Every structure is written in C-alpha cells, then in structure tokens.
C-alpha cells in the first residue's frame, strides 16, 4: 500500500512538470504580456520605456530560461508578482484559497446530503411516485444552466425575500473573529452552496439509482434473500455497500470538479475566491496569476485522481494492493 | 414411504409480458420426501428455474402471479408474509445457486457470508458462530478453513466458491436443499468433486434435495427420483433407475438420444426438430411436444393430455408414448439403452 | 503431408511487478505444445478452463502473439509471416466461436455478416455475392429469405449455424471450433454437431475442435490431445484416450464424466476416489519437482504420454 502511494506520488512529478511546461507555453503564446495589459494605451508610457521594462523583467529571454526561472521560484512557492495588483501572487491567493476551499467543501457535503438519500430511495423504490419525483428533479437539475439557476436563486432569496446577502463572502464592516462575523460568513455561503449543490446532485443521483437497480438483480442479492435476510438489511448490508463503492472512489474527482465549477458560482455571487480571481485575471491579462491558478487546479486534478485510486483500493477488497 | 418434506400442488407461475400473464410453470405437482433427491430436468425454457424461484419466493411479485400451493412444514409458503417467509428461507430451506462467481457478495469475507443466516435464524454467540462456520467449511471439504474464513470471494477458485455456497445453504441445518444447476458453471473435474460432495453430505444429513439441472448425466449420478419438464409441464416422473432403463415420454427418449456420451463413435445424434416455443407462442391445448414429433399421427395424442401411471410409480403425460418411435430415415438414431454405457 | 504442424508452440504473458513495473515472471499460457493435423481429420484439444486450449487456437489463427515455436501450415510457418503474407492464409483458416450470441454483430443483417469475409478477400459483383450467400445460408439449413433478418431474430442453434456459414464463406481448409456448442441446449447441440459432421465431408474440412466436454470430444474427434497447465499430458486416438488412458490427469478427466447408468453411480464415485489416491501417491511419476509435466513419451505410433 505504502509502496503504491509512493509510486503514484513519484509518478506525479513528471506529470506536473509536463503540465507546467504546457501551461507556461500557452501563456507565452497568447498575444500580449503582463506589461501590455498594465500599460497598453497609457499615453504616459512610451513604447521604448515598455521595451526597457520588458528587458528588465526578462521577458525577452528565450522561453526555456524564463521557464526555468519561473519553475525555480514556483517550487519555492513564489509565483511572481501580479502586474495588475502590484502584489505577490502568493499573498494575493492566500485568503482566496481558503474561501474557495470552504465553498467547495460545503458544496460537496450538501451535494452528498441531498444526492445519497434521494438516489437510494429512487433506486430501491423504482417506479414509485417518489422515484418519479426524484427523476423529474434530476432531469431538471441536469437541464438547468448553472448561471440561470444561480441568478434565479439570488433574485428570489436575496432581492424578493431579502433573507440572504447576495455578494461577497462576509460583511466587511464586521471584525474577524467575532460571533457576528462568523454568522455573516455562514449567511454569505448559503446561496452559493445551495445553487451549486442542488444542480451538482445530478450525476450522483443518476449513478446511484441505476447502480442499485442493477445490483438488485445480481445473484448475490438472491443469495441474501434465500438466506432469509430481511428486506431492509438486504439493502443496508449488501446492495448499498456495493453501490456506494464507486461513489466513494469518485470523491477525489468530485473535489477537483468543484474547484473548476466554482468559477461560475464565484463570479455570479462576486465571492472572492480563486474562480472569481481567475476570471478577473484573464480579462486583465494578468498572466502570472493565471498560470499560478491553472497550475493549482491542474495539480488538484492530478492529486484528486490519485486520491480516487487510493480510496478505491482501500474500500474494494478486489483491488487491494499489498 | 417416508414423510413428505415438501409438497408442490398445482403450482402455476405466470409472468406478465406486455400486460398478459403467461404460465412458465403450468400446474406442476411434485412431492419431495425426507432424504430423497428429486431431480427436475429439462432444457432452457422448460420452467425448472422459475419453479425453484417460486418455492423460495424469489420472484418479483410486481410481474409474477403464483397459484397453487407449496406446502412446507405445515404451512403454504405462497401465502406467507415476507417476514414469515424469511423465517423459513435460509433456515429450513437452503438454496445453492448456479454460478459461484456471482452468487457471493464480492465485498464481504467468506466467514461473514456463511455466518449471516445464523444472525437471523440461530441464537449463537460470536465465538460459537465462528466455530460453526469453521466446522461447516471443513465439512464441505475446505482444508485451510481458518484462512478461507478471512478471505474474499475473488481470492478463491470456482470450485472453492461453490463449496462456500453449499456451506451457506447448510449453515442452519436445513431439511430441504434447493440446488439450481449447482455444477453447470464448473469444470468437469470440479463438477465431479461437487457431485460427490453433495452425495456424501446428503448421506450424512438426510436432507431432501431438489436438484434442478439440464444435464442428464448429473441426474443419473445424483437423483433418486426424476421429474422431466417440457414447456412448463411435467411430462414424466419416475425413479431414476426406471427412467434411464425404460424412458417413456417421447421428449425424454429424444433427449437421451441426443447426448453424445451415449453414442459410440461417430454415429449421428438424434435431433429434436424445431425449437421450444416462447411463452407467448406456446399452444396450450393438446400435447405440447406434438409439433416436434410430427410423424406421430394426431390421433395418437390426447386432446387434453393427462399424467398416466404407465408402470407402478412411473408417470407419463399424454398417450403418444404408446406408439412413439424414431423414424427410419432419421436413424443412425438408434434407441438409447442404459446398460450400453460403460 | 500434414495440413498443420504445430511445433513447440509457446505463448507467454509477462507479469509485471515491483516498483518499476519490471517483468518479474511469465504466465505460461501455452508452454511448448506440438501436434499435427492430417487433412480431413478432426483433432480434439481438451482440457479445463485455463489449460491453454483456447489460447492455442487463437495463436494459430493469429489472434494471440506467439512467443516461440512453429506453426507450419501446408509447409509454411505462420509464426514467421508478416501481416500481409499471413493475410493470404486467413482465407484457409477460419474460426467458429463459443457464444453465438456475442460473436455476431447485432446491427448487421445476415447477408452482410456472411458477405463480410467475401468482401475482404474476393471481388464479387453484388449479384454474385448474393448468390453465394444464399447458397451458404441454404447449406446451413436456413431459408434464403432469412438473409435480410438480424441475429436477434434467430434461435441459439440457428445463430451458431450462421456463424458456421460465415466461416465457410471463403472455403477454408481448416476450421478452429472453440467450444462451438457449449452455450447451447442438449438437443440443439446435437443439431450443430451433426451438421458439422455433414459439412466436413461436403467441404473437405479439417477441424481443430476445442472443448472441455469429453463426451462431445469422443463423439467428434479422431485424435485427441489432453492439455493441462499449458502443456500436453497425453495424445492419442479416441480409443487410446478413452479406453487406455495412461496419465493420471487424463484418467481423472474421464472419470469425471457423469455416469449415465444410475446403477453404477457408486462404482464411479469409488473409481474417482481411487484416482485421486493415485494422483497423490504417484505424483512424482507424472510431475517433476517444479510441478511441471514431463515431455511426451511415445508409447506407440499414435499414443504418447507425459510421464517419467
């Protein structure tokens, strides 16, 4: 087991290097650079001055030198300086990472809290009214675009009813560490979390329902019934264990998916997280920030995949690794 | 005569196909006595598996209709509630399934799976349960039982898994075993081992066994009495020696003649013309085998074929058996006689 | 001259392990088997699952890579041929598969199914092709109109006959039949087996018949090779194998055939016990220190056995 994790971790290194090269090259290939974004069209800065700045920042060096410098710094946690914010990228990210992780984590938890019971009910009582209602909800969740749904939620709960705030992550007048601050944070989370998770339930419900229907017909379930196992226990002891297994394994992927998905939610609710920052940075061509963010989410995907493999090998005796 | 353990009376099992019910098991009556192995034999579509699932209450009642009686231990299993039925299944009736690769839960240890019926049917302490499981494993011929107890199904071979399935069926000392094609999915040498094991266990435990199979060889090796089914009906019932020495129904005789093992060298095998009709296309009036022996004139069949006691304790359906013969031009197909096999 | 001469055929699969996924060992699926097929005969390859019989068949037809050995077909080594040269011989060697349900493409009607090999190897006009397919379909006992139907509209036995018609389309010399009737009911088995015997005469076919069912093998085959763990344990004519088996494994296989006479069932059970006894006490006569079979030793012109 340890050997397996170690091997997978070492395998990650070339994957990450390849990823970083691709990201770096793509960023370089895009028209313009950080200085263009910051000073283009500014009448006070002449082209010669711009060129000098470029020379000074090393932007005219061959790509591999630039890459080497960037990588060397990145390994030490230094992704350079944002030209737009005039701030170190790392310190720019610091608070936002926390915000996004909180948002993603809650979205994930709420998604499972909704999806697991509904999937189980739909799968166990196929063709009942409850199943039909759940399937209808699920098609709705699948078909509704996230931004439309989120805007509707915001309009209804924040504007019409006025129950909840509609932007930012906390009331800025409050001091951090107080009870009110905590309550305000929680309130600010409700709408983004609900909007995200109500739609994200789709794949889990669909998968769980189908798998339970499939498992119900398996021979080992017949064996269990022939043993005289009560119906409720047939589900808890046999069917669900088998059906939940792949879902546990997908947990790793889900986490990374959520970080990607936060781009929309954060932009709509102007929630100061990585996704919101990402959109802003692209529109201002703040490449140091963009590359850092892509690097982070790429790493998350690779780590998530590994996490999934490890979870699966723990919960499924058939692929247990010695 | 010994006491009957199970009495199936006029059982019909019908499946809903596009709104109409069609009987897959059609008015079947079979009695199983203590310490008796009754084989139910027939080809796919004859209703033998549907019959077994009906006895165990394993059909999905949403699209299945059961009629008649299955009398066991003084009660009619068909009229029991699910809870009451669960007190019988796994305790007094054990079931052995066809495919040991799929019949076990892949995520539970072997020990756990054999123990499970005891959780519901016996009051035993954890250590007594384990002791019993280990003993069961030894009894089904597993030697390294301590190790197997901890293992998962995928770590065992097919033959070992089938032994485990048998151990599960035996876990609460049943009086009746229902074995649905217990050796079909196994390799030949493993099949022989499992057959011998079941014979041995049956000798020790004196359980009644219903053995469902398509393989007449397995029947000849294991059964005391044989029930031949065709298209949902019983067509012949006889003691095993009588059946193999003196098969009467045209279907039984045709089946015996189409087995390569009964033929020396390269003689032609008997071919039964046509196919088993599907449930919807089955003509339920007259002799159901008549379309496949067209050279027998219609007047030799009964209009409503009944079971006749042709010899003492040897029952056969329809009168066509009296005049049935294999036509000249289809031969190479000589009549099978039991004593000729080695 | 023999039609096919297999000489010391080996098919090994690597097992990878350790930190760098290096090849640590091999699965010896087929580990040095030799046999010859004479034109017109039926040669049976028997054994239990995992013995390598199917892998051998697939290696001969080119579906498995060969690790070592020769497969001389009409004097030319199939194993040494490149893809293009080998293609010429796919015409002569065809295969019938076990499962008639999955070996036919459900979305292709029978005309297209049977015509496929013709289109690959022969240039026929649409009309010639139709005539050929109809002839074949009639030969396997189906009506000419059925060529426009799809596989699901046929019964298992009929599907297997369609599979045979496809194999016959190119007039092959050798047919490798891998468990051709295992998935079928007894009475349908009989149809297909009889039919295979008929076409053998009509088309001058040689069969390599792969099966685990000793009853069927006895019925169909002239000569038989018994396989176990990738090697031959015994080879001989049907009579030699069934009446005079020498290797304990062969004896065990034959004793495992269910006894069709209920009067003798306990005799059979005791015979099996005796053979198991022999298996244990005489183990060293049949297997070397590594548990491997010995090389075949000739007992007569036709009969060989793997004993010390």
Structure description:
The complex is a heterotrimer of chains A (322), B (342) and C (308). Chain A has 322 residues and is mainly alpha-helical. Helices cover 77% and strands 1% of the residues of chain A. Chain A has helices at residues 2-29, 34-39, 47-57, 63-75, 89-124, 129-143, 146-160, 179-216, 219-226, 231-268, 274-283, 287-315, and strands at residues 81-82, 87-88. Chain A has a two-stranded antiparallel ribbon with strand order 1-2. In chain A, strand 1 (81-82) and strand 2 form a beta hairpin. Chain A is globular. The relative contact order of chain A is 0.14. In chain B, strands 6-7-8-3-9-10-12-11 form an eight-stranded mixed beta sheet, with helices on both faces. Chain B has a four-stranded antiparallel beta sheet with strand order 2-1-4-5. In chain B, a hairpin with a 2-residue loop joins strand 11 and strand 12 (314-317). In chain B, helix 6 runs parallel beside helix 7 (188-205). Chain C has a single domain (4-92, 170-305), classed as Rossmann fold. Chain C has eleven helices and twelve strands. In chain C, a hairpin with a 2-residue loop joins strand 9 (223-228) and strand 10. In chain C, helix 4 crosses helix 5 (156-168). Chain C starts with a strand and ends with a strand. Classes of the chains: A mainly alpha (322), B alpha/beta (342), C alpha/beta (308). Chains in contact: A-B, B-C. Chain B binds chain C through residues 43-44, 158, 187-192, 195-196, 199, 214-218, 220-223, 240-241, 244, 254-255, 258-263, 265-266, 268-272, 275-276, 338-339, 341, and chain C through 48-49, 155, 157, 185-191, 193-194, 197, 212-216, 218-220, 238, 252-253, 255-263, 265, 268-269, 272-273.
């Amino acid at each position: 087991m340890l050997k397996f994790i170690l091997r997978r971790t070492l395998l990650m290194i070339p994957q990450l290097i390849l990823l970083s090269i691709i990201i770096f090259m793509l960023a370089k290939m895009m028209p313009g650079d950080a200085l263009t974004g910051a000073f283009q069209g500014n009448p006070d800065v002449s082209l010669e001055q711009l060129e000098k700045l470029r020379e000074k920042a090393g932007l005219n060096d061959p790509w591999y030198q630039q890459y080497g410098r960037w990588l060397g710094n990145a390994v030490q946690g230094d992704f350079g300086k944002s030209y737009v914010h005039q701030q170190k990228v790392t310190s720019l990210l610091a608070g936002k990472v926390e915000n996004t992780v909180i948002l993603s984590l809650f979205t994930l938890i709420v998604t499972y809290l909704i999806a697991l019971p509904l999937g189980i009910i739909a799968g166990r009582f196929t063709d009942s009214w409850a199943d039909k209602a759940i399937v209808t909800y699920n098609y709705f969740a699948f078909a509704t675009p996230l931004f439309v749904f989120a805007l509707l939620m915001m309009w209804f709960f924040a504007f019409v009813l006025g129950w909840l705030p509609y932007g930012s992550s906390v009331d800025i007048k409050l001091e951090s560490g107080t009870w009110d601050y905590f309550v305000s944070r929680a309130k600010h989370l409700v709408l983004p979390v609900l909007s995200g998770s109500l739609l994200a339930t789709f794949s889990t419900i669909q998968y769980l329902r189908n798998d339970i229907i499939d498992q119900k017909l398996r021979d080992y379930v017949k064996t269990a019934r022939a043993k005289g196992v009560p119906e409720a226990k047939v589900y808890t002891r046999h069917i669900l264990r088998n059906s939940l297994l792949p879902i546990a394994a997908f947990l790793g992927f889900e986490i990374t998916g959520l970080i990607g998905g936060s781009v929309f939610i954060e932009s709509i609710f102007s929630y100061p997280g990585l996704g919101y920052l990402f959109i802003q940075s692209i529109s201002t061509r703040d490449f140091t920030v963009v590359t850092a963010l892509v690097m982070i989410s790429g790493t998350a995907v690779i780590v998530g995949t590994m996490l999934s493999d490890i979870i699966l090998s723990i919960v499924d005796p058939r692929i247990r690794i010695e | 005569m010994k006491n009957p353990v199970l009495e199936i009376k006029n059982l019909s099992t019908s499946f809903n196909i596009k709104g109409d019910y069609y009987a897959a098991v059609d008015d079947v009556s079979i009695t199983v006595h203590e310490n008796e192995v009754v084989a139910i034999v027939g080809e796919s579509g004859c209703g033998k598996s549907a019959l077994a699932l009906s006895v165990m209450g394993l059909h999905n009642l949403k699209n299945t209709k059961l009629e008649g009686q299955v009398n066991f231990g003084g009660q009619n299993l068909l009229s029991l509630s699910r809870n009451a039925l669960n007190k019988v299944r796994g305790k007094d009736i054990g079931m052995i399934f066809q495919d040991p690769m799929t019949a076990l839960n892949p995520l539970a240890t072997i020990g756990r799976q054999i123990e499970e019926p005891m959780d519901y049917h016996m009051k035993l302490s954890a250590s007594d349960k384990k002791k019993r499981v280990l003993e069961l494993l030894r009894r089904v011929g597993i030697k390294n039982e301590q190790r197997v107890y901890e293992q998962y199904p995928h770590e065992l071979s097919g033959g070992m898994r089938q032994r485990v399935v048998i151990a599960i069926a035996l876990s609460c000392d049943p009086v009746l075993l229902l074995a649905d094609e217990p050796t079909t999915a196994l390799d030949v040498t493993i099949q022989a081992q499992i057959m011998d094991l079941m014979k041995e266990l049956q000798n020790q435990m004196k359980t009644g066994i219903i053995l469902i199979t398509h393989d007449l060889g397995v029947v000849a090796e294991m059964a005391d009495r044989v029930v031949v089914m065709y298209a949902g009906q019983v067509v012949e019932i006889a003691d095993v020696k009588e059946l193999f020495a003196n098969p009467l129904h045209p279907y039984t005789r045709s089946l015996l003649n189409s087995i390569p093992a009964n033929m020396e060298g390269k003689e032609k095998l008997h071919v039964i013309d046509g196919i088993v009709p599907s449930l919807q296309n089955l003509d339920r009036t007259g002799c159901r085998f008549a379309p496949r022996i067209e050279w027998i004139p219609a007047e030799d069949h009964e209009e409503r074929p009944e079971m006749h006691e042709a010899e003492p304790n040897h029952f056969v359906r329809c009168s066509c058996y009296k005049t049935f013969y294999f036509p000249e031009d289809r031969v190479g197909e000589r009549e099978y006689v039991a004593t000729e096999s080695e | 001259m023999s039609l096919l001469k297999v000489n010391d055929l080996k098919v090994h699969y690597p097992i990878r392990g350790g930190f760098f996924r290096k090849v640590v060992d091999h699965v010896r699926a087929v580990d040095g088997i030799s046999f010859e097929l004479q034109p017109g005969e039926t040669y049976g390859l028997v054994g239990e699952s995992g013995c390598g019989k199917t892998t051998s068949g697939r290696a001969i037809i080119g579906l498995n890579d060969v690790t070592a050995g020769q497969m001389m077909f009409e004097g030319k080594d199939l194993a040494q041929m490149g893809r293009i040269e080998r293609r010429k011989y796919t015409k002569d060697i065809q295969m019938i598969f076990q499962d008639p349900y999955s070996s036919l493409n459900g979305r292709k009607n029978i005309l297209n199914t049977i015509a496929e090999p013709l289109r690959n190897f022969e240039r026929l006009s649409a009309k010639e092709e139709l005539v050929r397919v109809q002839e074949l379909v009639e030969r396997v006992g189906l009506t000419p109109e059925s060529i426009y139907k799809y596989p699901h509209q046929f019964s298992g036995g009929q599907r297997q006959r369609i599979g045979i018609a496809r194999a016959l389309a190119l007039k092959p010399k050798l047919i490798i039949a891998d468990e051709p009737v295992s998935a079928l009911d007894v009475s349908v088995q009989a149809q297909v087996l009889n039919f295979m015997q008929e076409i053998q005469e009509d088309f001058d076919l040689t069969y390599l018949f792969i099966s685990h069912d000793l009853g069927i093998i006895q019925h169909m085959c002239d000569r038989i090779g018994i396989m176990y763990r990738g090697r031959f344990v015994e080879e001989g004519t049907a009579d030699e194998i069934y009446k005079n088996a020498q290797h304990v494994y062969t004896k065990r296989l034959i004793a495992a055939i269910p006894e069709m006479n209920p009067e003798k069932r306990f005799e059979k059970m005791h015979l099996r016990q005796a053979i198991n006894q022999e298996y244990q006490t005489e183990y060293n006569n049949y297997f070397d220190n590594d548990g491997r079979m010995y090389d075949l030793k000739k007992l007569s012109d036709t009969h060989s056995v793997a004993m010390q």
